[in-house]
Design brief:
With about 600 residues, the protein is α/β, with parallel strands linked by helices. It is about 35% helix and about 25% strand. The strands form five sheets. Strands 3-2-4-1-10-9-11-14 form an eight-stranded antiparallel sheet, covered by helices on one side.
């Protein structure tokens, strides 16, 4: 949520900042703004709407300066508008600040500062912080005023500030919201909330921890804690491929990322599958091998699409490893006082590694003595650093707000975890070999689905006339039904609901008529006959059915109105195939309707506030 960038160095700051904002626009696109230091003053321009609106505004000006900050916003406090856009400034227009997060005690601070003569113009909590710095700056240097103010706020922040009174200095800090320092060269730095904004300029980064402040000048950088004590950090290398954050000829990132899934799956498997032994080699778990072996219970915590991946993982682990599994929404997890002990393993799943609710769940689990493992895509992210052990998904940067390839990587990682745990607990070598063999065959099977893409696009065009959908599945594809519905909602804005196919007749079937189609996942698995019965129930009420079925299944074609086929595989791995046509279906429905597919309304890529 919200893209933050700051640059200090020798180059013109404006093009660097605008390029960085463009690469982070998926983090929020309600409004955008930037502020550039110009000798003894600061020029600031802000516009409601997409980044292009700000770009058009800047064409009117010649902004010269090598120190500046920029922001693209996902609204929390205050509706999208020019006034509520960041950066925000103090009364004297000397300090400008950008912020991601929420200042929970902003109302009390605002009341106290108003009594001291401060004037506020926006409806944001962020504006309070810049005025608080201003108040302390009356008696303290900029750096001390900045740190003092942060010690007085309650909430979360990724924040960057500049002052015209100290034009060669930039302050950045984080608490519960990501902040990364990119080291370009001698006296040249970028700070940003997302590594995507940094990759073009440098691969050398420092990940700030919670409660840390970064002081940047042309002479170097220093990291301190909130007591102004120096903190040492190791410079890390970003290994993402910069070209992955570009469309490479595709009309949308979402379609590109769907087509990247065979490679993503292979990257997740590489070096981890030993087919002859039927084993999954999880290097990241080695230090916690003994505790993992003693695990009596698994809790999977996640949000959104990752939560549905976790629900598939629940079926996998329970069936093949014999361990009881619960799947929890991270937003509810810590508030219901979960029963956890030292024999509990908590698996946290996240694309960004910065999901606020999930970070809170990880910390709560550690506090209660659980072993906490992470399945995360972004190297160096907060969750990756907070967990006891983990494994990276290696999906690369995912730019489309609606997750596709990261979900595929998460499903793959959960299959590997299942294989790893299962072989520890009595799974036969033969079964392990079968799972390993099928996992390695999965990329080619996904490519077979792409051969039907034109047919899927044609079906999507036909179905785009409807306004309501059911997505139905059972057992391993129960969660995939929910994920299919979510994808359609996210990118097309059509109403879609996921249900267990067996749940339909317990109420929701009342909605079925000629104008309420159902997308039914019905592979030839252990619940095939039961889902066929559910499909017949829909047809008996004049509902239109689009079935996702196994290749060669002619029987389902006699019942359903339309069929998309997926290759045959092990039952536990059918979700990796079934989700692909659902992703393509959602994409082409949205494309037919002319939606903004990569940046759907009201959404943001990484939810870094609760």
């Amino acid at each position: 949520m919200c893209g933050i960038i700051g640059y200090i160095g020798k180059q013109p700051a404006t093009p660097i900042i605008m390029d960085g904002l463009k690469r982070m626009e998926y983090r929020g696109y309600d409004s955008a703004g930037l502020a550039i230091i110009q000798s003894d003053s600061i020029a600031c321009h802000k516009k409601e709407g997409k980044l292009g609106n700000l770009q058009a505004e800047l064409a009117k000006y010649d902004l010269v300066g090598s120190v500046g900050i920029g922001h693209t916003r996902w609204a929390t406090h205050g509706k999208p508008s020019d006034v509520n856009a960041h950066p925000h400034n103090d009364c004297r227009e000397e300090i400008y600040l950008i912020h991601n997060g929420i200042i929970e005690n902003y109302h009390d601070i605002k009341t106290a500062l108003s009594a001291k003569g401060h004037t506020f113009y926006s409806a944001t909590d962020t504006e309070v912080l810049v005025h608080l710095i201003e108040e302390h700056h009356k008696t303290l240097p900029f750096e001390e005023a900045f740190i003092t103010a942060l010690n007085e706020v309650v909430g979360t922040y990724g924040v960057v500030a500049i002052s015209s009174k100290e034009p060669n200095k930039m302050m950045a800090a984080r608490l519960g919201s990501p902040m990364i320092l990119g080291i370009i060269g001698d006296g040249e730095y970028i700070v940003a909330s997302d590594v995507a904004a940094i990759m073009k300029h440098t691969r050398e980064v420092v990940y700030l921890n919670d409660g840390e402040v970064c002081v940047l000048t042309e002479g170097g950088y220093e990291i301190k804690d909130l007591k102004a004590q120096a903190v040492q950090h190791t410079i890390q290398q970003v290994d993402w491929d910069f070209t992955q954050a570009q469309k490479q000829g595709y009309p949308h990132f979402m379609l590109k990322e769907i087509h990247e899934q065979p490679d993503v799956l292979m990257n997740a498997l590489r070096g981890r599958v030993k087919q002859e032994e039927g084993l999954a080699h999880m290097r990241g778990f080695l230090e916690q091998a003994e505790r993992l072996q003693d695990t009596k219970r698994v809790i999977i915590v996640a949000m959104g699409t990752a939560l549905y991946a976790g629900q598939v993982g629940e079926y996998m682990i329970e069936e093949y490893a014999g361990i009881p599994v619960e799947v929890e929404s991270a937003a509810e997890f810590r508030y219901r006082k979960p029963v956890i002990d030292e024999h509990t393993t908590v698996i946290a799943i996240s694309q960004s590694g910065e999901t606020a609710d999930l970070i809170a769940a990880v910390k709560e689990s550690k506090l209660k003595g659980a072993l906490v493992l992470g399945l995360v895509n972004v190297v160096g992210s907060t969750i990756a650093r907070e967990v006891h052990a983990g494994a990276y998904c290696h999906a690369g940067p995912e730019i489309g707000v609606a997750s596709t390839k990261a979900f595929m990587a998460q499903l793959t990682m959960l299959a590997l975890v299942t294989l790893h745990l299962g072989r520890q607990r009595g799974m036969s070598v033969v079964m392990g070999q079968r799972i390993a063999k099928e996992l390695l065959a999965m990329p080619e099977k996904i490519k077979q689905i792409f051969a039907q893409e034109k047919a899927i696009a044609k079906l999507a065009k036909e179905y785009s006339q409807y306004h309501d959908f059911f997505f139905l599945g059972r057992k391993y594809n129960y969660a995939i039904a929910y994920e299919g519905a979510l994808k359609l909602k996210e990118v097309s804005y059509l109403h879609a609901e996921g249900y267990g196919a067996g749940d339909l007749k317990h109420g929701p079937i009342a909605l079925i008529d000629e104008q309420f189609p159902s997308v039914v996942i019905v592979p030839q698995d252990s619940v095939y006959e039961k889902v066929l019965s559910n499909l017949q129930e829909i047809k008996a009420r004049s509902g239109r059915v689009l079935a996702i079925a196994t290749e060669g299944d002619t029987h389902v074609a006699d019942i359903a109105d339309d069929v998309i086929y997926i290759p045959k595989t092990l039952e536990m791995l059918t979700p990796l195939l079934a989700v692909v046509p659902l992703q393509l279906f959602a994409y082409y429905v949205a494309d037919t309707l002319g939606r903004d597919i990569d940046q759907p309304r009201n959404l943001a890529k990484s939810v870094t506030v609760e």
